[in-house]
Amino acid sequence: QVQLVESGGGLVQAGDSLRLSCASSTRTFNTYIMAWFRQAPGKEREFVATISRSGANTFYGDSVKGRFTISRDNAKNMVYLQMNSLKPEDTAVYYCAATIGISPVVTVRNYKYWGQGTQVTVSS
To answer: Across all residues in the chain, what is the average pLDDT?
Structure first.
């Protein structure tokens, strides 16, 4: 069982930056593909970013490409999401997710482990 705990959410203004963190309990963190998803009220959960086990490969959703950066520190069992140039439409609960695999994947159903989420609110 893998436990994931997100932190770093909050209320910011449009154009601001925010860094989300996700701590994992597993000792084999470097065997998991990690990702961030988000869910706004009344909408389906949306893919944001994913990172390979080594951190060498990343992939982003179109709506965040060029503004968000996913990274990981396998020595600390942590994954991060640096969010720059935030927009009101980025407002959502952000979830950290993990799965076993070889290549990063972008669909909700492929991820087995999920955190409880952290709220990000961007005011205009």
So the answer is: 96
